[in-house]
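Aim 2 progress. For Methylenetetrahydrofolate reductase, the working sequence is reproduced below.
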Amino acid sequence: MKVTEHIANAKKTVFSFEILPPLKGQNIKTLFSNIEPLMEFKPPFIDVTYHREEYVYRDKGNGLLEKRTTRKRPGTVGICAAIKNRFDVDTVPHIICGGFSKEETENALIDLDFLGIDSVLILRGDPIKSEAKFIPDPNGHAYAIDLLEQVVQMNKGRYVDEELKDATPTNFCMGVAGYPEKHFEAPSMKSDIKILKKKVEAGADYVVTQMFFDNQKFFDFVETCRKEGINVPIIPGLKPITSLKQMTALPRTFYLDLPDELVDQLEKCKTNEEVKEIGIEWCIQQSKELINFGTPCLHYYSMGKSDPIYRIAKNIF
Ligand code: FAD
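Predicted structure tokens for this construct:
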């Protein structure tokens, strides 16, 4: 079932979460054992992230470096199928522009269609770690909206190969990203929301937000979206802070602010264990307030660790 159908059928706020595919060379058992306890809260769908290629440099021993391209977390489509098969739950692969040609994207979407996976989260992807700005594949897409339009066309039976006659239309439900604290490249919140509106007008069925720690930012974001005529479901993304390092790493990586009240509490912590307790409690309070606000679904970023999410979900669902 599609994400939007799950939301429409739900009698109350539903629980969902995002996982990362295992690092290359690791097996799927650890991932399964992380997911297993979270199934208690009956997530109607689980998101699986996509990771673009990275450059690694090998010392050739003669003063020269050899540049190699590698994908450290391959297998998003396979993982989606494996989770669906193992837990009988819908999976939502993230599909990114970065590093993919239109044809490669089309082939991945064909695989997903064959597997009965009918929702995708459509994203641009970030720049390659060693590059200052996002560079699209020469035969790929520059923005999420361009990738979205490819999926919209496939849903009408129009594939990249224009010679193809009577191609079967796919039937993907399409999610896109939204940023309660603005995407870092957007010149203003207004222009970022204008882009989001374009994505929805182009066919996006729902929005999932970047993580945030101040609910007021989400409430303001939703209010502005509604005023601008963005009427699709907006799913808040949440993550509990679990280590001292994340206090600086999360704002730097995701371009967000931590509220003073949270920072004051975190600054008193001496160990990661103490931080984790504060982070979980903060996320529980955020979740309760978001449910009261009437949010259709709470979406948690597990980042490979299910224990904090389990403790939050046990309090909420
Ligand atoms: P876009 O919507 O293309 O926007 C990118 C920037 O360009 C924005 O500043 C926007 O305002 C601007 N823009 C967009 N369209 C246009 C246009 N036509 N003209 C001019 N400006 C434009 N990354 C991954 O690599 N893998 C993942 O699995 C992944 N999952 C994510 C899940 C969620 C819920 C979120 C919120 C983010 C995720 N990301 C993931 C990160 C995401 O790829 C980055 O935030 C990326 O920098 C932007 O992606 P986007 O889809 O929002 O891009």
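The chain has eleven helices and ten strands. This observation will guide construct design in the next reporting period.
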